[in-house]
Amino acid sequence: MLDPSSSEEESDELLDEERRDALLAAGGGSSPRSLPPPPRDPRGREGGAGRAASPSPSVLSEGREEQERLQREEREKRLRLQLYVFIARCIAHPFNAKQPTDMARRQQKLNKQQLQTLKERFQAFLNGETQIVADEAFCNAVRSYYEVFLKSDRVARMVHSGGCSANDFRDVFKKNIEKRVRSLPEIDGLSKETVLSSWLAKYDAIYRGEEDFCKQPNRMALSAVSELILSKEQLYEMFQQILGIKKLEHQLIYNACQLDNADEQAAQIRRELDGRLQLAEQMARERKFPKFITREMENMYIEELRSSVNLLMANLESLPVSKGGPEFKLQKLKRSQNSAFLDIGDENEVQLSKSDVVLSFTLEIVIMEVQGLKSVAPNRIVYCTMEVEGGEKLQTDQAEASRPQWGTQGDFTTTHPRPVVKVKLFTESTGVLALEDKELGRVVLYPTSNSSKSPDLHKMIVPKNSQDSDLKIKLAVRMDKPPHMKHCGYLYALGQKVWKRWKKRYFVLVQVSQYTFAMCSYREKKSEPQELMQLEGYTVDYTAPHTGLQGGRMFFNAVKEGDTVIFASDDEQDRILWVQAMYRATGQSYKPVPASQAQKMNPKGGDVSADISPLYTDRGQKHGMEEFISANPCKFDHAFLFQLLQRQTLDHRLNDSYSCLGWFSPGQVFVLDEYCARYGVRGCHRHLCYLNELIEHSENGSVIDPTLLHYSFAFCASHVHGNRPDGIGTVSVEEKERFEEIKDRLSSLLENQISHFRYCFPFGRPEGALKATLSLLERVLMKDIATPIPAEEVKKVVRKCLEKAALINYTRLTEYAKIEATAEKDSEAMNQATPARKLEEVLHLAELCIEVLQQNEEHHSEGREAFAWWPELLAEHAEKFLSLYSVDMDSALEAQPQDSWDSFPLFQLLNNSLRNDTFLCNGKFHKHLQEIFVPMVIRYIDLMESSIAQSIHRGLEQESWQPVKSITNSLPNVALPKVPSLPLNLPQMPSFTTPTWMTSMYESTNGSATSEDLFWKLDALQMFVFDLHWPEPEFAHHLEQRLKLMATDMIEACVKRTRIAFEVKLQKTNKSTDLRIPSSLCTMFNVLVDAKKQTAKLCILEGGQEFASQWQQYHSKIDDLVEETVKEIISLLVSKVVSVLEGVLSKLSRYDEGTFFSSLVSFTVKAAAKYVDVPKPGMDLADTYIMFVRQNQDILREKVNEEMYIEKLFDQWYSGSMKVICMWLADRLDLQLHIYQLKTLIKIVKKTYRDFRLQGVMEGTLNSKTYDTVHSRLTVEEATVSVTDAGGLQGITMKDSDEEEG
After folding, report:
1. Lowest-pLDDT choice from 255-269, 582-596, 599-613, 1269-1283
2. For residue 633, what are the contacts with CB-CB under 8 A and spacing of at least 6?
3. Could you give the 3-state DSSP secondary structure of residue 385?
4. Using H for helix, E for strand and C for coil, what is the string for 166-228?
């Protein structure tokens, strides 16, 4: 491709043979990466001739090879120096680009050592070796971050590739803790934002470490300079490093190119632009164009070249000059924009007026002292005045004539290039009538900008007859040089249109704008020039002396079509300075060379700070730099040079201390932009080279921002497809071919990155990279820039990539799992893995797979955002990934022995992960998982049902009915009983959740071993099935219904067997007052109570309404059964205790009036009473019964768990007791009660009433009609006895009394 600044003409005389060889050699293959030292092998071999492949090359071939290597390195060095010259000029005088200030700030990258240090710091925190105080939740978050992220090999690879910064590490931690903090419960007075801020502050403290707390900010501040706006010196230093230029070489180039001279740089730009216009004209004449895709683009190409040069001219013209003609600048800019070429000719020139070149000067006059003052008395006052003619007058302070010293400075401004300065010395007049002070002397000076600025003695003009014949004044006059006054001095001149007489004049070279200069001659005390000549179009050169002209020794001239102006100076040095200044102003391509070398600079009449380029040029020639300085930029292939420059800059950028992701720094962007604009590098070529380099680095493992690839690709695509925002431009065949090649490479790269997204963008770093990659892939797949690609085509490509990604991820995951397993056990043990070992491995692999899917969802969720209209793509990727796992899972499950239940945790692990995923729930793998475990679940429940049924049968047969208090202490660890009749191995049931009733039962556990075991098994089985969280609703409902029915049947059997056992046990007890309710009966009672409670939990179906009526009817049967059984055993127990009361009453029946026993007792007592004191019957019977009642009440209250049933029991017991007593009294209505009967009954009734009232029997039950009847009868009997035998009752009465014994 031919660049706008290059030429195809092979016979160009200005391009010397050696430089062309260097360019061809360096660009012979492709793009040589070997230029920066240390040199690496170039991609292409020079000349195409290879050396003979010999295992022992000859000495001659080795010498030739070494010579070729040295020659190649020399050519590369020369090419680097030449390229650096062009770059240095771009840095020294930019006029197109500026350093961007809106670029994203890049973060410092982490290296391997820093990553290792970071791991050690976090490990130290987890080990408690730091002073950072943290709660358990933060420690868990840090531990997860350390194990999952910091120790990940993907993070290590990301750090090695240079694409990871400290900010990335912090963002990953922040995203991790945000999810954790959101899941924490709300705390009053502590917001979750505060928790997040606190955790991040602690993370920063761990990250920094204690030893780097103070010095880290300083180091960061020093290294952050390259991301800021750089000075010219910093830019020079950067590109010295990029191109491998030594400091001495830079200094030589700097001085030889006069990089600190803005005028020289502007003149160089003008010469370059003029050369590019000439090349464009030559190309248009000779019709030698690059090969374009259409022939019509050839003329467009010339117009592009012209417009680009005109734009550069306009940019240069727009640079500010300290003082110039603004009207002229606008006219010049307008003309440059409207014409294809910058016309050089009289017909279109804009004539300067004399007012356009008016200058402004600042003068500083410093009066030091006066010498030789004798005519004035020493005590007289003297002073000086100073003025610039035409301006104001200033006066010094007063001084005594004996010491006329001041050091006073006066500042003046003037527009006269040749001002007249007058300084006068005065003394104060002492006469009364004197009106003015007396003038003692004066001096008149004619300073110029080249005049000496140091203090000098000047002889003063004194009045006539003055005694001060040798009066001198010491003063300094400093006249500045305005920036737009490029040179000044005295010259002889003769022209055809101006300066038509040969005479000496004072000339000033004035810059009006960047493209407009004028030679002006001035007279004294005049601000406007007498005559002026615009230098545009003139060529300046040294000439031989003209013999016919008197005055002047060193001649030079300025020539233009139709005009020649001859100049002459008095010495050679002055002539060289004038020619150099005019050479810069004219912008001519020809560089004048004096006939002989310049002698040493003559400081007399010259400017100390004047241009000393001949001296620097001489030094440059001595060090071999002249060749590079004087090289014509228009004769170089800047497309190739820029490709080289951009490659080396990118290599340097990727190796610096920043995580740049391929983005240049602001200073690098600035220099590259300036180079492209100044030397005409086509934008498409620039971005194609950039894309090529970025793709190559990305293929080699570097992390490149896909957004950056997108920008460059979009630019190239719009250019090649003719859809540029600035209009249709020329497109060369080479550009189109390279674009298609890069497009294919980029497409392959993007597909590979999407296939390796977990490793190319680990943990979602760089942020948003996957989304940008998918967006770029869609752009790359477009046929042209205007026609969008059908969504199905993109979907097809992404689906294919994600299928590969599934295989890649699973393959690497299994390799990682094998590495972990190998670390634990040797390979021999691995090969001989038992079924249990295989299950353990596949369970661990399942955990890793779930972790991978969770990380994909957490860190690569932007993939769903990018393809929100295809959410099934990532779901398909996950299904493919899980299908690969299913092969290993099926193999491990097939190896398990029959009726082995150890694989249930695998189902639960996978199911809990899949059922919460919208896209994977009941997907292909999920259904496959269910199909495998459905028979196992059914088989397990069948066996458990048989086992529980047999355990009930055998357990109740052998039941001791003693309360069990120890089984619940270790419920989750209790192995299920083995059933001897079943040849099955029933291991401990996997229980993932503690039974919900465990805590309450532990507080009062008086059930039997069989019942406790039954209820625990039923609850654990239901919790086990519940924890499976079966995803298919119909089967899940079937399992729930079956387990509820099983529980109902089992509890029903247990209740019935307990009822029978209760009745049998109760019948074996005696009926005397010695009866104490056995604990076994209380245990049976508690079993029924627990059964009542468990039915509410184990037998209620939590389903929809479809089974409501049928299931409610079935469930009510078990409820009714339990309730009826409880009522029956209460009735049986009441009947038993009431029968004891009946026995007591039967004993009292012996004392009935009229019975044989009563008569016998009365007779015996009366007969014996005559002789001895016979004791009367005591209250032993009543006390025994009352003790019986109270102790049995305490037993029931202590050992029966249900308060409601105890209250029912006590109600019925009390009512039954009162009923029996009432019936006994009713049978004796016609008989008077024996005193012993009365006393016993009164005590029994009163104590019974009081005891049952204390046990909580309600007032309505206590004061029933039966009790009232008994109370009335006993009260009447008591009254009767009190009349007949008042002392017989011994204080026992039916009246309430707190003094009675308890």
Report:
1. 599-613
2. 5, 86, 272, 275, 679
3. strand
4. HHHHHHHHHHHHHHHHHHCCCECCECHHHHHHHHHHHHHHHHHCCCCCCHHHHHHHHHHHHHC
Instruction: Please report the sign of the dihedral spanned by the C-alpha atoms of residue 345, residue 350, residue 352, residue 353.
Output: positive
- Provide CB contacts within 8 A for 734, sequence distance 6+: 1, 290, 291
Distance CA 768, CA 771 (A): 5
pLDDT at position 1115: 59
For residue 563, the SS3 value is: strand
> Tokens in use for 601?
């600079």
The two tokens of residue 125 are 């925190």
CA-to-CA dists, residue 798 to 805, 856, 876, 917, 924, angstroms: 10, 16, 11, 21, 20
Q: By three-state DSSP, how is residue 352 classified?
A: coil
- Tokens 């930019």 sit on residue: 94
Q: How far apart are CA 36 and CA 808, in angstroms?
A: 38
Please determine, for residue 555, whether its predicted confidence score (pLDDT) is greater than 90: yes
What are the phi and psi torsion angles at 1288 (to 5°)? -70, -30
Q: Which of 427, 397, 422 is nearest to 412 (CA)?
A: 422
Tokens of 1140: 């004891």
Interhelix angle 733-755/706-720, nearest 10 degrees: 150
- Cα 1241 from Cα 1275, distance rounded (Å): 11
Write the CA distances from 611 to 223, 312, 567, 570, 579, integer angstroms: 38, 27, 19, 18, 11
Which DSSP symbol is given to 127?
T
Which pLDDT does position 1287 carry in this prediction?
Answer: 56
Q: Check pLDDT > 90 for residue 195.
A: no
Share of the chain above pLDDT 90, in %: 22
Q: Are 745 and 698 in contact (CB under 8 A)?
A: no
Give the C-alpha distances (Å, rounded to integers) separating 1272 from 124, 165, 1220, 1245, 1269: 89, 100, 16, 12, 5
Encode pLDDT of 415-468 as tens digits. 888 899 999 999 988 776 667 888 889 999 999 888 888 999 999 999 888 888
Lookup result for tokens 């016309």:
343
Is a pLDDT exceeding 80 seen at residue 945? yes
Q: How far is CA 990 from the centre of its chain?
A: 42
Tokens at 746, concatenated: 């980029």
Tokens of 1224: 């006994």
Q: Is 595 exposed, middle or buried (0-12, 13-18, 19+ CB in 10 A)?
A: exposed
Q: Is the peptide bond before 766 cis (omega within 30 degrees of 0)?
A: yes
Tokens representing 18? Answer: 């050696």
DSSP string, 480-499: ---TTEEEEEEEEEE-SSS-
Q: Is the model's pLDDT at 966 over the cut of 50?
A: no
Q: Are 366 and 409 in contact (CB under 8 A)?
A: yes
User: What percentage of the chain has pLDDT greater than the value 70?
Assistant: 80
CB environment 1108-1135: b (16+ within 10 A), e (fewer): eeebeeebeebbebbeebbeebbeebbe
C-alpha of 68 from chain center:
50
Element (H, E) at 693: helix 683-699
Among 843, 816, 845, 841, smallest CA distance to 830 is for 841
SS3 assignment, position 1015? helix
| Cα 315 to Cα 674: distance, rounded to the nearest angstrom | 12
Cα 1130 to Cα 1139: distance, rounded to the nearest angstrom = 14
C-alpha 1278/C-alpha 1225 separation (Å) is 14
Whole-model pTM: value is 0.70
Instruction: Return the number of other C-beta atoms located less than 10 Å from residue 527's C-beta.
Output: 18
Q: pLDDT tens digits, residue range 491-503?
A: 999 998 899 999 9
